[in-house]
Design a protein that fits this description.
4-stranded mixed sheet, Rossmann fold, two-stranded parallel sheet
């Protein structure tokens, strides 16, 4: 399979998902996100993909979450991001259309996708798909046992303004 577009020729996007695990050397991704923010309907991240959103400025003055194991590093990024420690996923409501969604780890990203698509399209067909693939999503966005496992607190003790 070959890419049909590069960042300069990509068509308008309905949904853009930023995966985690690629936080180094992402300046071109950050620039792409900045350029496409206004024309993209939804921007989401899974795991530490929220770091890229934060560094691009997309999470400024928004609520977000991320992987709890990486939490102490994640919350160092972004301007005035309200990092939500006890959340499986977060839908930021600072914009009426609920444009920005972030999730914790990979499995939480699947749960976020279920919540997002359910919010966008309803759950009737979505539930049929879940039954076909035998996946039972967690539907409580506040259920996050990994915040406990990784002892995540709202702020870093040495930097109480980075929350």
């Amino acid at each position: 399979m070959y890419a049909t577009h590069d960042p300069t020729t990509a068509p308008p996007l309905d949904l853009l998902l930023v995966p985690g695990g690629i936080t180094a050397g992402t300046l071109w991704i950050e620039q792409f996100l900045q350029e496409r923010y206004d024309s993209t309907d939804y921007i989401t991240s899974v795991c530490t993909g929220s770091v890229i959103l934060a560094r691009s400025g997309i999470l400024d003055n928004k609520r977000a979450t991320s992987n709890k194991r990486a939490w102490p590093n994640v919350i160092l990024h972004g301007e005035n991001v309200t990092w939500v420690p006890n959340a499986r996923w977060v839908k930021d409501d600072s914009e009426a259309n609920g444009k920005v969604w972030t999730s914790s780890g990979v499995a939480a990203g699947m749960d976020m996708a279920y919540a997002l698509f359910g919010w966008m399209y309803g759950t009737e067909k979505l539930n049929a798909t879940m039954n076909n693939i035998e996946y039972s999503p967690h539907t409580d966005e506040h259920w996050d046992p990994y915040a406990v496992v990784h002892k995540v607190s709202r702020c870093l003790p040495e930097s109480p303004t980075k929350c």
